[in-house]
Amino acid sequence: MVTPNLPPPGGVQVVKHDFSGSYNRDWPHRYIKAHLALDYIIPDRAKPVFLAILDRYRAIRERDRLKIVDVGCSYGINAALLRTDMNLDDLYAAYTAIDGPLTGRLSADHRAFFESRNLGSDIRIVGVDPSQRAARYARSVGLVDAIVTTDMEASDPTGAETRALEGADIIISTGCVGYATEHTFGRIYQATAASRPWVAAFVMHPYSYDGINDMLASHGLRTRKMLVARQRRFSTDTEQRSLLAAMLDQGCDSRLERTTGYIYASLYLSTLPNEPIGNHIGL
Ligand SMILES: C[S@@+](CC[C@H](N)C(=O)[O-])C[C@H]1O[C@@H](n2cnc3c(N)ncnc32)[C@H](O)[C@@H]1O
């Protein structure tokens, strides 16, 4: 299956597993099961990296309370991991175990569960996702504080959405670049440029970050590729062959994908050029 809305990264048509039927539902369960089945792990790998980036940003910009914009926030997975002490396995189990605290479908229970995990007030999260039902779930259970559901690939955010984005400190993303391109990131950066936010995005191989990199450079940001992390297992041999062919076509190093059976993502971090960031996240 070819995922709708996901353009091929280069000249090669990519056959990529289609998760889209799980993206826009009232409840996250189908999304969680579909992603657990392919060992989708990138939010878990991203958590300590994002937390280290938040710390570095706090130290350099001398700020305590941060406004984070999560592009492709879905049901608030990154928010749940960043705002609580849970890891992704905890979250998968909470939603899918027979006696899991989130297997039911009562908003008040989900809200109470996350409240009881100490959501904290040192970060405020704005979730961006045109999958309105997913984003509304994230807001209704308190994982994100505001949502932006305009598809910014096609249209500008509304006035209220622009105000929600303003003042952002860091823009983060996992599993979304490809669906969201320089059009979405450009509109977000336009709305937030006054606060010069950093951008930290995990980009699944072999999708290109060039367009977003160029857009951010036009705002004076410098982008570095910091590290590579596991995203998920290949769904089928056909998908593996197709993605490996696309990686070859793009000139991407595919050693990890050829040997482990997993697809990886690269983390790109964009900051102001004079901000003292090394080439590695100190983890
Ligand atoms: C694989 S999911 C990743 C969700 C979450 N970040 C995670 O890692 O668990 C991809 C998400 O991108 C969202 N998406 C699709 N098109 C988008 C767009 N134009 N702008 C922002 N998000 C988009 C989908 O609705 C979906 O929630």
If you had to describe this structure to a student in words, what would you say it looks like?
Helices cover 39% and strands 17% of the residues. With 283 residues, the chain is an alpha/beta fold. A seven-stranded mixed sheet has the order 3-2-1-4-5-7-6, sandwiched between helices. α2 (42-61) packs across α3 and α8 runs parallel beside α9 (210-218). The chain binds S-adenosylmethionine (SAM). The site of S-adenosylmethionine (SAM) has 22 residues, from α2 and α3. Residues 19, 23, 42-43, 71-72, 74, 77-78, 128-131, 134, 151, 153, 174-176, 179-180, 184 line the site of S-adenosylmethionine.
Question: N-to-C SSE series?
Answer: HHEHHHEHEHEHEHEHHE
How many strands, what sense, and barrel or not for the largest sheet? 7 strands, mixed
User: What is the CATH topology?
Assistant: Rossmann fold
CATH class category: Alpha Beta
- CATH architectural name: 3-Layer(aba) Sandwich
What class, by secondary structure content? alpha/beta
Each distinct ligand: S-adenosylmethionine
Shape: globular
Overall pLDDT = 92
Give the fraction of residues assigned to helices: 25-40%
Order of the strands making up the biggest sheet: 3-2-1-4-5-7-6
Low-confidence stretches: 1-6
Number of domains: 1
CATH superfamily: Vaccinia Virus protein VP39
